[in-house]
Amino acid sequence: MTTILRTVADLRTEVRAWKAQGKTVGVVPTMGALHDGHLSLARRARAECDRVIVTIFVNPMQFNNPEDLKKYPRTEEADAALLRSVGVELIFAPAPEEVYPEGFSTTVSVAGVSEPLEGKMRPGHFDGVATVVTKLFGMTMADRGYFGQKDWQQLQVVQKLVRDLNLPITIVGCETIREPDGLAMSSRNVRLTDAGRRIAPVFYAAITAAAEDIRAGQSDRMAIREAAVTMRDAGFERVEYIELRDAETLLPSHDPTRPRRMLAAAWLDGVRLIDNIPV
Ligand SMILES: Nc1ncnc2c1ncn2[C@@H]1O[C@H](COP(=O)(O)OP(=O)(O)OP(=O)(O)O)[C@@H](O)[C@H]1O
Ligand SMILES: CC(C)(CO)[C@@H](O)C(=O)[O-]
Ligand code: BAL
């Protein structure tokens, strides 16, 4: 059975009872509109923890664009059915007032890793993510937290905040789940037109080709420029960034002995898509 709870008090009562029985608890934070990417996180949590909580909360604090917040897909009934099929015990779906009651005034801000790339393009976004994730960890008292590599920078921000604040939770980064044509699954993909959906796989193909060229010895700058041209020629309105970075700090990296990551963001059909791959 999958229970839906809406208040922190009810959630705490349930989790305290589990903990008293010595059960381990996994949490999968989401904003809903669930797809196979989310479900892969829930399945991994299911395999590794005695009890699984999926949180569904479209967090206003992390949206720097009010239109994006308004248009964010909300499909709670379908989400609950999917989570039931995975065997998730509890859905925590609070109202904004429950998470941010009158007078709420704390911000968690992770300096450094939050600043480039998504942080630069979406000012305030990672403060919103770091604050809500810290709250969700406190509310759920989970032992393990599951996050997708699709949001690579977010995963690094969360790992850093857990280390810096000594939070008693282990973060598990899960592989990006893709459509058969390579497009990374994302809740925002439903906003693409049919024509846009046909163009979208060029994103992953272009950054994959660039990563291969860099590994084969081509200059970073040249390989990245070619990827951007390929995407624009295919019909992407705008390539916001394609960057090769240190996989953990996200600082520019020209040291091939350290793990590196290519991260990118681009607009198609007025929808902002992101993706990343190891190099
Ligand atoms: N394709 C995917 N593969 C693996 N994990 C994913 C995938 N898509 C999302 N996730 C992870 O699921 C969690 C919740 O993400 P979120 O609810 O924002 O979904 P989303 O599809 O990324 O939506 P958005 O359109 O906001 O990017 C995050 O940890 C995210 O990294
Ligand atoms: C982690 C998260 C649920 C926090 O709101 C969100 O940023 C997301 O869905 O990736
Ligand atoms: N998937 C990361 C959350 C966001 O785009 O707001």
Automatic annotation (TrEMBL):
(R)-pantoate binds at Q62, Q154. ATP binds at residues 31-38, 148-151, 177, 185-188. The reaction proceeds by a bi uni uni bi ping pong mechanism. It comes from the Bacteria. Its EC number is 6.3.2.1. It catalyses: (R)-pantoate + beta-alanine + ATP = (R)-pantothenate + AMP + diphosphate + H(+). Homodimer. Catalyzes the condensation of pantoate with beta-alanine in an ATP-dependent reaction via a pantoyl-adenylate intermediate. One of its GO terms (cellular component) is cytosol. It is found in: Cytoplasm. Pfam families: Pantoate_ligase. GO terms for molecular function: ATP binding; pantoate-beta-alanine ligase activity. This is Pantothenate synthetase. Keywords: ATP-binding, Cytoplasm, Ligase, Nucleotide-binding, Pantothenate biosynthesis. Pathway: Cofactor biosynthesis; (R)-pantothenate biosynthesis; (R)-pantothenate from (R)-pantoate and beta-alanine: step 1/1. Its main location: cytoplasm. The active site is at H38. Beta-alanine binds at Q62. The keyword Oxidoreductase does not apply. It comes from Aliigemmobacter aestuarii. The keyword Endoplasmic reticulum does not apply. Belongs to the pantothenate synthetase family.
